[in-house]
Amino acid sequence: MKDINDLLSLFRPDSAEEESIRKTVDFVFEKIVYYCRENNIDAEPVLVGSVAKGTNLRDGDIDIFVRFEKKYPRAKMEKLGLSIGHFVLENGKEKYAEHPYVTGFIDGKKVDIVPSYRMLPGENILSSVDRTPLHTEYVKSKLSLEGKDEVRKLKLFMKHIGVYGSDARTLGFSGYICELLIINTGNFIKTIEMFATMRGKLIIGDPQYTEVFQSPAIVIDPTDSTRNAAAAISLENLSRMKFCSRLYLNGKLPEYNQSRGGRKKDKKERGTTLRVFRVKKPDILDDILYPQALRFKNAIWGIMERNDLRPISWEICMQDHIDVIIESENKVVPALKTHRGPPVDEPSSIDFYNKWMNMEISRGPYILGDRIYVDLLRQQKSISDVVREGLKKINIGKNIDDQKETMEIFDPYDPGRDSCALDLFYSKFIFQVHPPEKTSRNTRSS
Amino acid sequence: MKDINDLLSLFRPDSAEEESIRKTVDFVFEKIVYYCRENNIDAEPVLVGSVAKGTNLRDGDIDIFVRFEKKYPRAKMEKLGLSIGHFVLENGKEKYAEHPYVTGFIDGKKVDIVPSYRMLPGENILSSVDRTPLHTEYVKSKLSLEGKDEVRKLKLFMKHIGVYGSDARTLGFSGYICELLIINTGNFIKTIEMFATMRGKLIIGDPQYTEVFQSPAIVIDPTDSTRNAAAAISLENLSRMKFCSRLYLNGKLPEYNQSRGGRKKDKKERGTTLRVFRVKKPDILDDILYPQALRFKNAIWGIMERNDLRPISWEICMQDHIDVIIESENKVVPALKTHRGPPVDEPSSIDFYNKWMNMEISRGPYILGDRIYVDLLRQQKSISDVVREGLKKINIGKNIDDQKETMEIFDPYDPGRDSCALDLFYSKFIFQVHPPEKTSRNTRSS
């Protein structure tokens, strides 16, 4: 990859951007204070997120929270929050994370205005966004000016290998985790050295707090010692971070290389079968949709497995549609089915025998080990038939269940067919390769 | 099956046969005693086996041991044993089990003359044949006249379902085990009831002796409490005995039904691939050869498994040749090979990456879980090529290694090709189906 310092100078906001951010924040703050005073609302604006902490990259979002007195019931607070948001952002759109919030653009900068409650460190959290201001305070108090750029380098490194972001799709490292890592190790290179030599889990925090967690990565939140701030990080992403850190220190971490990934190869080269399962993409946040897409994939995978189609690998791409691609060894259900009956110790083994002795079967009943078996022949159904039939009986979640009826199943190599999932499929690399589209804002918590 | 009492009257030796056996035994005894006296050998004949115990079936063998004083060294004893055997059996042939012995025919009855040492119960056994006279004494002392016919019924039942015989091929119940079962339960039907309701292992004997054994069937030898007399019995055969006992008590145990087994079916019905691996059959005892045939099968099976040919089932038939038949899901090695590298925690994962980054591969290197992988493409070799290549590196045992060069590999459905292994393959049933040939004498120990 490029020199990390060159990357930093490319992606660090320049003074013009910093000035523009400052103006936007001032403008938003004034309007919120004005609206609250006029309407007698006990709340104030607070700048949070990477801008507040000085760890933002070029063209980042501006996150401004409106902190309400805890006397407001949740519904009331959310309603007031939205009205403030719309007052500030003239063409703002409502989105829904833990609370509804308003997002819009000022001077070409994306601004989110998010309602929350006033919290002190150690107080019981009402919802996870309420933590964000505490995180902001903590990082501001711990991070030096140089530390901020070290965080930026770490974020750029993680973006390069595709593990930056704690959303449901990425399952990677959040900005807050990057900040905690730099606070802990001191700088970028020490963090990389830590990952390069790490064995097993990532664990940061007092053992009395860390030992209750099972995840591959455990980083105790300094503002709440009962919380694992690294819970989102998947084993794969921790592995990618370790491996790429090792490569980086050896001077061998590559640029993302299109000639290795992204090729639409001739399927015959692999001798396998590829199928795309496509449903319409409902208009909801990726963070809510992606886990459902994953359940959708798991349902199809399970059906294929139970029918001996022998699935091998998969990808999910959510662009205009939800495309699940699954590669399998078999194109049709194998005729032979070795059907396992009960152990001979069970009286029901006799029922199994009586049933199959009266049927036209391929072989048996016979005994292997301590059980009775028969060899049956089944119809050699196509992947498409088996999956359509199987999905009827499986409840995936309303958003996707509604789309089952219009699901398309196709071979991505068929003339006129294509899928971004196929590109992902052939892009598999030590980096996590993200879908080509610009995804919508995934998550609100830091 | 037929009524067990009808079977008994069919297969119990009639009085003419009993008279003929008596005459033969007297004749053999006289000749042995004469030879020993003339040659000053300290040994005497003893009648052992099922004839001695009165549990023999029609047309059974006559087993006569020559018991030597322990002063004779093994080589001397064996040499004298053979000379006695040849003196008695004019056209006798030498066979080799634990000691060499002589087998031949007198008046159409097969007679084995086997050398052994004089032993008392509890004495350290010099070789396992030395136990046979002790077994004979024990059973004679415990079994009533009625008990003898109960043993015969049990043997006939076990022959019917194919689990009678403790040879390396059958791995079933020996005659001695049948006798011990009847001595234990009292009669045939109680033995069947015991198996029909048994859960888990067959265990007979004091727990202090049985608990040291791991086999599916444990029956402590009353003449040697450190020995499991049922060690040969396989889990399958114990299961068959339980299951068929259950069926028998329900009046549902069938005759062996050719219309269910033994069909040479159209291979296309199963959508699988069948291959016969044929080598010449060396002229040695089945008990020595069969374990090697099994190793031969295991070697081929392992090669097929490692090459993702996905073997499903197998049979071995030893008639004129050793024929191993293996059914597999794949006819050729699949092109795609998902090649697993080291865990990313290991520095060697970098070597793996460097190696494959310079190669033309299908996909990767990529990370799954905590390891690095690549997808490779291989040549889609045939079963025959892969197995021939793989067997070169595997040592199976001299008798079969010598035959590898001339091994034939063929599809049993090819015109002009056939194999008794294919008949066995389609005969798979709750009974153990034995190869169609008359096998040679398998074993000498009871």
TrEMBL record, chains A, B:
Enzyme Commission numbers on file: 2.7.7.72
GO molecular function annotation: ATP binding; CCA tRNA nucleotidyltransferase activity; magnesium ion binding; tRNA binding
Domain of life: Archaea
Catalyzed reactions: a tRNA precursor + 2 CTP + ATP = a tRNA with a 3' CCA end + 3 diphosphate; a tRNA with a 3' CCA end + 2 CTP + ATP = a tRNA with a 3' CCACCA end + 3 diphosphate
GO terms under biological process: RNA repair; tRNA 3'-terminal CCA addition
Binding-site residues, CTP: 50, 53, 135, 155, 164
The entry's keywords: ATP-binding, Magnesium, Metal-binding, Nucleotide-binding, Nucleotidyltransferase, RNA repair, RNA-binding, Transferase, tRNA processing
Named cofactor requirement(s): Mg(2+)
Chain residues that bind ATP: 50, 53, 135, 155, 164
Binding site for Mg(2+): 61, 63, 112
Domain CCA-adding enzyme C-terminal: 270-408
Function of the molecule: Catalyzes the addition and repair of the essential 3'-terminal CCA sequence in tRNAs without using a nucleic acid template. Adds these three nucleotides in the order of C, C, and A to the tRNA nucleotide-73, using CTP and ATP as substrates and producing inorganic pyrophosphate. tRNA 3'-terminal CCA addition is required both for tRNA processing and repair. Also involved in tRNA surveillance by mediating tandem CCA addition to generate a CCACCA at the 3' terminus of unstable tRNAs. While stable tRNAs receive only 3'-terminal CCA, unstable tRNAs are marked with CCACCA and rapidly degraded.
HAMAP family for this protein: CCA_arch (MF_01264)
Record's miscellaneous remark: A single active site specifically recognizes both ATP and CTP and is responsible for their addition.
Designated name of the protein: CCA-adding enzyme
The encoding gene: cca
